[in-house]
């Protein structure tokens, strides 16, 4: 997997959970959304998107369903499960703690 | 993980396993959907379709790799890999059918040889009692110096039941008793087996009857008041064709009417594995059954006929229960010194009860199982050797796999899967082999009055154990070859087809295998020979009488109590019986005994104090086996009286008490003196004096394994016994006396059952020929199979070496080596290994011989003949196994050999 300056380990999971918390989406739509919401700062290789999705599915955090798209094609839509919602809460809390701690440290060193 | 988590994940895993293809198609579709959109996007941005397509795939970063990653995410890799491995293994094993068949047969023999002894071991030692929570059930025993597993008397049982607190319930039951059964009062009774049990028996063991009810406590209170009976389940099926309306009906047992109140639970027989009672009757009815006539069952504290069992309370510690009963045993000894002096009480677990030091059966099963495991070990080493050879021949294949990136662990797994497939195939065939062995054991019939059930069977337990052992053997024989063959030098491995690691180490493993094989087979052969010789030795003495008597003596057992005779009437019956039988033409002599020599019922133990004999300081009385016989006994069975006289009809209840002892007894207590005229006191120091009037020759009394023992004969007229065997000796064939004797019995009492009628030859055959024969055959088969395996192993090793060195041999011969040199070259190593193995084997043989002698035959020393036969046989046979392929090597034409490869 390409290791972009992009993503701290595990943040991709957090991003995916967050995106899916807003609405159920299929893989292609998720990749578009990832690109747009992070202003192209976070480069998620499309290659690593699907393994990550499947991993989340196997963890029981998201579930998949085949549904019609607006263009009348069948696509695999992912949505959050109850477990996923709980996981999202803990992970975002962790992330808040971590990022505030890091920015705190970074500001210290500049002072 | 939380269960909630499984709610989502388990269905997914199951889907990934069983709908594998569907899941794959969905994955393809999902990725295609993505790619199509990506391409569309590219085209819209102005790229050519081809370029857009190329970029789309590029963005994915290797489609197949991604798919693999996704498959990994499913977490069923271990399984799919395993399935693939099994598929691959079966394919590659099919390619070498000869080798596969050989390994499968080898393992099948090994596993099959263990299945039979395992079924014996399970039945005799490990199979739990057929009751719920069998681990809680323990046996309470009375202990004395001579018998640490003695029974309790009825009175003692009551005291124990009322005083101990460690148990939910304490039950008592007798040994299986013969009983005369007639479904209707008019019918002549048939012989069946009954168990007298305490009223709480079914309740405490938690095996409630399937129909009707068990006993109520009040049905066990008053002697003789409540004639109720619970039928054994199997008996109910065969005798009453499973008719549920049997409850409430009346049947007749020993001449008394009993009301059927229930049918015992399916599958429950008794806690003793050989018994299959047809009736369960409350202890209070003991008066109608054959208890010890010299004692009073309900009042004598030393009429010890009850096996007492307890179900421990939940959470009760065994140690506490033991302590409690030991205390009670000490109380007994203090309160009742007359009957309980030198006696204690102890709690025994199931395992302890089943492995009593006096019982030979379980010891035999242990020895047999151990030897069978050695055979399995030999089989495994054989299979390991072959797998090693095979792995080496596949060096190139393995090197290629390693070179293109297969992990070593992954390869080891593949190779282990191969041996697992082999071992399981072998295991399944082995179960079939074992089944045949167990079926053979079951045909073994014991000439007892009540059919004895042979508890050995191929059940789920034995099956699981057998398959378990084949999996273990797969690990054992596959692990080493797998690790060794995946440690390949890649460069050399790719060059040559057949390359092992260099240096001495590569041979070390195989050499060790051969040495182990030779040693173990030699030990097994020695063991089977020791067994054979042991039986031969114990059967060679004291059986002269039997070889003469077997075709001329007829046996018939009687128990007049079955038809309600009292002591006096019983004595008159026997007297008339013998008198009238003696008058019949063709009868040479007739006699009464409690148990014929070699008979199946145990001997009475009699306690006594010899006069003028210095007693060991710590004992009050001595004990000896004894038989009660009449005046015709010694003549009829053919045991010579060496000094003094046998019994006379004048030795009746009014005359002074007399006895005949055997030589061993005489020498034991009056060494160097004449035993005639010496006296001992029966029962104790104050007992009635008995004078020795004769010394009889030592004979073989019964138990095949027992050595020489003391033996005492007493006249039946002075010690009346109800249950006796009539022995009749004819001039010609014993069986021709059957009809005349039946006529006599009928003329005396048409209702009197003849319990078991057979010629002495039948007993002889069972005790002397068949019983030991089975044991010898079992161990002999093990030895033979081990030898066969060792031959195959050595043959395989040498021929494999020859095939590896064909080229080298060709060169040697081309430059002038003679066939003899080649022979020496090839065989030399094999013979050295055989020699080392033989040395180890002899050492192991000594060990096994010592163990078997001390456990079974009570003999010491080393039987040199065993090794004089076994060692040369072994050496000769293994030399032959090495010679055949070696000779083939010596005949290789150099031109052919050099063209090889």
Quaternary form = heterodimer
| Poorly predicted ranges of chain B | 499-504
User: What percentage of amino acids of chain B are in beta strands?
Assistant: 5-15%
**Beta-strand residue fraction of chain A:** 5-15%
CA radius of gyration of chain B = 37 Å
Q: Give me the number of helical elements of chain A.
A: 4
Number of DSSP helical runs of chain B: 28
Q: What is the overall silhouette of chain A? A: globular
Q: Spatial order of the strands in the main sheet of chain B?
A: 4-5-10-7-9-8
Query: Which secondary-structure class do the elements of chain B indicate?
Result: alpha+beta
- How helical, in percent, are the residues of chain A? 55-70%
Q: Helix content range of the residues of chain B, please?
A: 40-55%
Description:
The complex is a heterodimer of chains A (111) and B (901). By secondary structure, chain A is an alpha+beta fold. Helices cover 59% and strands 14% of the residues of chain A. Chain A has a three-stranded antiparallel β-sheet. Chain A is globular, with a radius of gyration of 16 Å. Chain B is an alpha+beta fold. Chain B has 28 helices and 23 strands. Chain B has a six-stranded mixed barrel with strand order 4-5-10-7-9-8. A six-stranded mixed β-barrel of chain B has the order 15-16-21-18-20-19. In chain B, strands 1, 2, 3, 11 and 12 form a five-stranded antiparallel β-sheet that branches. In chain B, a hairpin with a 7-residue loop joins strand 4 and strand 5. Classes of the chains: A alpha+beta (111), B alpha+beta (901). The A-B interface holds A 2, 26-28, 31, 45-48, 50-51, 54-55, 57-60, 63, 66, 73-76, 81-83 and B 4-5, 7-9, 12-13, 26, 29-31, 33-34, 37-38, 59-62, 65-66, 69-70, 72-75.
């Amino acid at each position: 997997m390409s290791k972009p300056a992009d993503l701290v380990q595990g943040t991709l999971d957090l991003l995916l959970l967050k995106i899916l918390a807003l609405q159920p989406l299929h893989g292609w739509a998720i990749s578009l959304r990832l690109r747009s919401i992070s202003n192209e700062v976070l480069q998620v290789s499309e290659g690593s998107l699907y393994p990550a999705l499947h991993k989340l599915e196997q963890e029981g955090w998201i579930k998949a369903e085949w549904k019609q798209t607006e263009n009348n094609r069948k696509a695999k839509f992912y949505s959050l499960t109850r477990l996923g919602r709980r996981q999202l809460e803990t992970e975002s809390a962790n992330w808040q703690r971590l990022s505030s701690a890091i920015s705190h440290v970074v500001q210290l060193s500049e002072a | 993980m939380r269960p909630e988590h499984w709610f989502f994940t388990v269905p997914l895993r199951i889907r990934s396993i069983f709908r594998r293809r569907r899941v794959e198609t969905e994955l393809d579709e999902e990725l295609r959907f993505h790619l199509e959109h990506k391409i569309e996007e590219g085209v819209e941005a102005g790229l050519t379709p081809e370029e857009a397509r190329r970029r789309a795939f590029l963005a994915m970063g290797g489609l197949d790799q991604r798919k693999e990653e996704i498959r990994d995410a499913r977490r069923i890799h271990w399984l799919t890999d395993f399935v693939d491995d099994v598929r691959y293994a079966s394919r590659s094993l099919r390619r070498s059918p000869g080798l596969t068949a050989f390994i499968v047969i080898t393992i099948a023999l090994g596993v099959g040889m263990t299945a039979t002894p395992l079924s014996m071991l399970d039945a005799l030692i490990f199979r739990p009692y057929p009751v719920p929570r069998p681990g809680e059930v323990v046996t309470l025993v009375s202990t004395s110096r001579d018998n640490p597993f003695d029974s309790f008397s009825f009175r003692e049982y009551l005291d124990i039941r009322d005083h101990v607190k460690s148990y939910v319930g304490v039950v008592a039951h007798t040994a299986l008793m013969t009983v005369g059964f007639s479904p209707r009062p008019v019918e002549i009774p048939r012989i069946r087996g009954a168990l007298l049990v305490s009223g709480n028996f079914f309740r405490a063991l938690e095996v409630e009857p399937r129909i009707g009810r068990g006993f109520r406590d009040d049905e066990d209170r008053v002697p003789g008041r409540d004639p109720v009976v619970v039928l054994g389940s199997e008996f109910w099926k065969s005798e009453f064709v499973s008719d549920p309306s049997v409850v409430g009906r009346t049947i007749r047992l020993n001449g008394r009417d009993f009301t059927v109140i229930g049918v015992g639970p399916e599958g429950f027989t008794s806690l003793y594995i050989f018994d299959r009672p047809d009736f369960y009757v409350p202890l209070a009815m003991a008066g109608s059954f054959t208890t010890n006539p010299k004692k009073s069952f309900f009042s004598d504290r030393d009429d010890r006929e009850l096996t007492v069992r307890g179900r421990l309370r939940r959470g009760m510690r065994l140690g506490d229960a033991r302590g409690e009963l030991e205390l009670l045993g000490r109380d007994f000894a203090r309160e009742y010194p007359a009957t309980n002096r030198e006696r204690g009480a102890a709690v025994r677990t199931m395992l302890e009860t089943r492995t009593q030091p006096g019982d030979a059966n379980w010891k035999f099963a242990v020895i047999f199982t151990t030897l069978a495991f050695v055979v399995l070990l030999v089989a495994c080493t054989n299979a390991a050797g072959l797998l090693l050879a095979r792995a080496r021949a596949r060096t190139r294949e393995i090197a290629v796999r390693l070179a293109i990136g297969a992990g070593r662990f992954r390869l080891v797994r593949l190779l282990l899967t191969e041996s697992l497939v082999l071992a399981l195939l072998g295991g399944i065939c082995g179960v079939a082999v074992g089944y045949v062995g167990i079926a053979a054991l079951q045909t073994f019939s014991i000439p007892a009055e009540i059919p004895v059930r042979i508890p050995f069977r191929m059940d789920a337990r034995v099956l699981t154990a057998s398959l378990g052992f084949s999996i273990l053997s797969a690990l054992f024989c596959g692990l080493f070859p797998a690790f060794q063959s995946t440690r390949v030098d890649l460069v050399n491995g790719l060059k040559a087809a057949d390359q092992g690691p260099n240096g001495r180490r590569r041979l070390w493993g195989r050499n060790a295998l051969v040495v182990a094989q030779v040693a173990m087979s030699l030990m097994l052969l020695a063991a089977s020979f020791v067994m054979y010789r042991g039986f031969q030795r114990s059967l060679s003495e004291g059986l002269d009488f039997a070889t003469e008597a077997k075709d001329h003596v007829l046996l018939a057992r009687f128990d007049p109590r079955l038809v309600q005779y009292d002591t006096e009437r019983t004595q008159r019956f026997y007297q008339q019986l013998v008198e009238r039988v003696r008058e019949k033409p063709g009868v040479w002599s007739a006699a009464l005994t409690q148990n014929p020599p070699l008979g199946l019922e145990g001997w009475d133990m009699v306690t006594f104090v010899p006069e003028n004999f210095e007693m060991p300081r710590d004992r009050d009385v001595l004990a000896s086996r004894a038989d009660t016989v009449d005046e015709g006994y010694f003549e009829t069975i053919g045991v010579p009286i060496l000094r003094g006289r046998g019994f006379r009809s004048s030795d009746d209840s009014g005359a002074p008490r007399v006895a005949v002892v055997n030589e061993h007894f005489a020498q034991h207590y009056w060494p160097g003196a004449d035993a005639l005229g010496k006296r001992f006191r029966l029962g104790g120091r104050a007992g009635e004096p008995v004078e020795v009037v004769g010394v009889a020759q030592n004979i073989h009394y019964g138990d095949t394994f027992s050595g020489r023992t003391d033996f005492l004969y007493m006249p039946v007229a002075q010690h009346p016994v109800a249950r006796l065997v009539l022995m009749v000796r004819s001039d010609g064939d014993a069986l021709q006396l059957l009809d005349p004797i039946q006529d006599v019995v009928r003329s005396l009492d048409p209702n009197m059952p003849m319990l078991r009628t057979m010629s002495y030859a039948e007993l002889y055959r069972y005790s002397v020929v068949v019983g030991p024969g089975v044991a010898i055959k079992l161990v002999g088969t093990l030895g033979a199979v081990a030898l066969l395996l060792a031959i195959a192993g050595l043959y395989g090793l040498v021929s494999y070496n020859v095939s590896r060195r064909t080229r080298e041999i060709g060169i040697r011969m081309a430059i002038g080596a003679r066939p003899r040199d080649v022979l020496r070259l090839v065989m030399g190593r094999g013979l050295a290994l055989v020699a080392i193995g033989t040395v180890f084997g002899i050492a192991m043989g000594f060990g096994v011989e010592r163990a078997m002698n001390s456990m079974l035959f009570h003999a010491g020393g080393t039987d040199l003949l065993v090794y004089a036969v076994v060692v040369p046989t072994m050496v000769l046979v293994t030399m032959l196994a090495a010679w055949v392929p070696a000779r083939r090597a010596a005949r290789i034409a150099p031109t052919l050999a050099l063209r090889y490869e």
